[in-house]
Write a structure and sequence with these properties.
20 strands; 8-stranded mixed sheet; 425 residues; elongated
Length: 425
């Protein structure tokens, strides 16, 4: 269970709502250490639970949407990034090469070159397209020390990334479907986009010199946004070096914006890696590559969730979903039995016994936990739980199995509401 903030809840929420670094440490979600290094946070058990739940949600959503998952190494030969264009356009943000005999390898700054190589490793027919490839993979950015902070600017990134290899006729539908995945994810996470941005090249940037490619990509993304009915703003100078993109912007409590999700159309890398598929005419054709990230980096997503919810995460994300509070030592075995049942059901429960203080103190300590179940002598005898919801509601004592089944259904559906009384009668 997350430890108490040791201050009044109202003051804590007001002081930390805009700073995930303070709140994340106080709640025992993540921390840093100079011996590990700047920009390299480590995840504590409660933070790891949030991260795991988020990653599993994304993997499940991608599987349902027809994505196939892959794993690729975090290292690659320098030549790989010379082909992709990262070395000439992005090397300032990459870590220096490491010499391995006659070869040089680098920590990857992006997953897309690896996915292009994976696509190229097999021949493909037009019947296989769109081919949707996804990975939750590590990548590394050589960020300067002065810009590092908490989880939002780090040097080791776990990226929710995917690449769709498709025909030109399929691009618009795939990009629109990616935007819909992002919308559904934000609904489950309880977050709201600040705005949608069409990110275009600007003067003086390091961009691939292919005017026709840029015009075609920008026209396709503009059409996707127009058809979706989403309001958006065009912004010069925000594009990736290889193509324009749709950025989904979120804002913290102080109004500072950051990019959480992206959809990009790329004609550049399929050409650089000589990707092709066999069309209905038996000839080779060049696929289009759609880059798509639903939550971007796991680190930045969790940072935004901490600030958005103040540590009171939706139940499916909460590190501890159910706090079991036996009134006395006599009810501790009953609480432990319920906790074991929760583990069998895939729910995260913790017993907070009398050794942690009075019942009132334990209730206050567990105030960010979605569900609190008090077990007194009567509840233990009847096999019931007296449930308090995080929002202050109290439920009439009810059988433990029925309550756990109802919570399990809400969690499995990735609901943001804690209880639907009419549906639970």
């Amino acid at each position: 269970m997350r430890r108490s903030l040791h201050v009044r809840e109202e003051t804590a929420m007001r002081d930390t709502a805009h700073d995930h670094r303070k709140l994340g440490r106080e709640l025992g979600l993540f921390d840093t250490d100079p011996l590990i290094g700047s920009g390299l946070p480590y995840w504590l058990p409660d933070g790891a639970a949030v991260r795991h739940a988020l990653e599993e949600y994304i993997r499940e959503a991608e599987r349902k949407a027809g994505y196939r998952h892959v794993y690729s190494p975090v290292l690659g030969k320098r030549e790989l990034y010379e082909i992709s264009g990262h070395w000439s356009h992005y090397s300032d943000d990459m870590f220096p090469p490491m010499d391995l005999g006659a070869e040089q390898v680098v920590l990857r700054p992006s997953l897309c070159p690896h996915h292009a190589v994976i696509y190229r490793s097999r021949s493909h027919s037009y019947r296989e397209l769109p081919l949707r490839m996804a990975e939750l993979g590590g990548m590394y950015r050589s960020e300067l020390s002065g810009v590092l902070g908490g989880l939002t600017r780090v040097r080791a990134i776990q990226l929710n990334d995917a690449h769709i290899f498709c025909t030109l006729d399929q691009v618009a539908d795939e990009a629109a479907a990616a935007l819909e995945m992002i919308r559904r994810a934000y609904e489950a996470l309880g977050i709201t986009p600040a705005r949608y941005r069409l990110s275009l090249p600007g003067p003086g940037g390091k961009y691939v010199a292919a005017p026709g490619m840029w015009e075609r990509s920008a026209a396709l993304l503009t059409d996707v946004l127009d058809r979706s009915g989403l309001p958006y703003e065009a912004a010069e100078g925000e594009a990736a070096f290889y193509g324009p993109k749709i950025d989904v912007q979120v804002a913290d409590g102080a109004g500072r914006e950051s990019t959480l999700s992206t959809v990009q159309i790329d004609f550049h890398q399929p050409e650089r890696f000589d990707l092709h598929y066999i069309g209905a005419d038996g000839a080779k054709h060049r696929p289009v590559m759609v880059h798509r990230s639903v939550i971007g980096s796991v680190e930045r997503a969790v940072a935004h969730l901490i600030e958005r919810h103040g540590g009171a995460f939706p139940a499916w994300l909460a590190p501890t979903q159910l706090a079991l509070l036996p009134v006395s030592e006599a009810q501790v075995p009953d609480a432990e039995a319920v906790a074991r049942r929760c583990a069998e059901l895939g729910l995260r429960a913790e017993v907070a016994g009398p050794e942690r203080g009075t019942l009132g103190a334990r209730v206050r300590e567990a105030r960010l936990v979605p569900y609190q179940a008090v077990i007194g002598a009567k509840e233990a005898a009847d096999g019931h739980l007296a449930v308090r919801l995080r929002d202050g509601r109290r439920l009439a004592p009810r059988p433990a199995d029925g309550f756990l089944a109802a919570v399990g259904a809400l969690v499995a559906a990735h609901r943001t509401d804690l209880w639907d009384e009419e549906a639970r009668q």
